[in-house]
Amino acid sequence: MKIWKKVLPFAAFAIIVAGFSLASNMVKAQENENEVIPDKVYIGDIAVGGMNADEATQAVQADVAQRMSAQLTLTAGERQITVSAEELGVEWANTHVIEDALTVGKAGNLIERYKAKKDLENADKVFDLAYDVDEQKVKSCLEANAAELNQEPVENGLTRENGAFVLTEGKQGVEVDMTKAVTEIEDFFASGWNGENGTIALSAKVVDPKVSAEDLKKVKDVLGTFSTDFSASSAGRIANVKNATEMINGTVLYPGEEFSVYDTIGPLDASNGYELAGAYENGTTVESYGGGVCQVSTTLYNAVIRAELEVTERFNHSMMVDYVQPSMDAAIAGTYKNLKFKNSTEAPVYIEGYTNGGILYFTVYGEETRDPNRQVTFESETVSVDEPATQIVASADPIGAVNVTQKSHTGRTAQLWKIVTVNGVEKSREVFNKSKYNASPKIISVGTASDNGDAINAINAAIATQDEATVRATAAEWSAEAIAARQAQADAEAAAAQPATPEQPATPETPADSGDDTTKDDSSKSDDTKKDDSDDSNQDDSGDEDQEDDSSAQE
Which end of the chain is more exposed for a tag (fewer CB within 10 A), N or C? Predict the structure, then answer.
């Protein structure tokens, strides 16, 4: 009993203390909810006195949002662009300033709190706004505007005029240093930006032309040259050869650079100045835009291999061409057959191409570093020959008409030898390339359109032999002209074989009702019948003429 008397007063005291503490915390929590920033406190230009945390945060965010439309001019050398703060990903960085504003006069010891309150009586308390940027947005913005910020160098130029080289000096370019530029933009906004328009100078580096004027002056020697004849070409083919040559002429190829013929002269269509002309397709010759440009690539190929530049891609034609020897050609066909080569020298090279008097010329100029006593030649060797067949087919042309619809092409397997001599002594001989050309048959079409069954049977029997001499002889025998001539001869012979009709003696007159009148009437009827047969014959002739007209229209 004595123990309970001692415990009970202590428990009651503990309950009282706990209750007081709980009440104190509840009051303090309510005070925090209603806590406001003292008067005369500013965050940047915003008076946040009397605001609670949420109100102050919203006020600052609204002010920051307005500043996102500020225009910033970014400069790089002589170039500049203008972007908004929002495009650079500018954002409010020191959000903790709201808590700092709330604790003015309430943080620290008693003396510090007193001093803070007295300072507010004499002057405003201003907290600075701090800004940061989204680094990824800055990079994206700079990359998107690189073409306007960067100034590409003007390359030193080289042209050939009146047989001499003319040098055009270039100009240095400017390129933004991306790493430094991001840091400079970050520093600008972190160092007290006031939300207004401004200018940020970005670090940039000088970009020199790829090749100096001094290097271009080295281009003076003929490294390789070649020409081919296209004077016998059609008007469309001549136009295509000239067009493609002009596109290649004047090319300057720097050390290590690769040149693509198709990328330079394509696309091969009317919009790019090309006309229809003969070209190879699936073993036949067809009309195609750009027909003839293969002679351009072939002529250039031969100049390039004599300059000993590195050939990285080359294809032979599907069938033989007649303007170079086997294995000396270089075909162009869409994007799957192309000629590419690389400038494997230490100096620039200049490609000159032109036409004159039906001759196509290409010359590769550069700096000659090879032994002057060293000579390079190329020899074509035919390894095997595949003779073409003759294919004879029927056509809907008039009977006996014979036409060669495709010329034959002899097939070959060939290789090109590269031979190097020094002072006239052969030092090396190697196979430079190998080529296989398909044989293409001579195709002859023979007309079979006729109403004469014997003629049709005779022509088809001749075609079945696939012998050209037999077909031509049979076609001559059964042509429409030959058939007509034979018919005319037969008619003449038949007419000549008819006996002369004897002259009839005069007969005495007879009464109208005699039997002689009946005989006369029968004779007249016979004459009428003959006249009708003649008309049928004429109608048949008219039908033949119609058929002949139809055949001509179809042809």
Answer: N
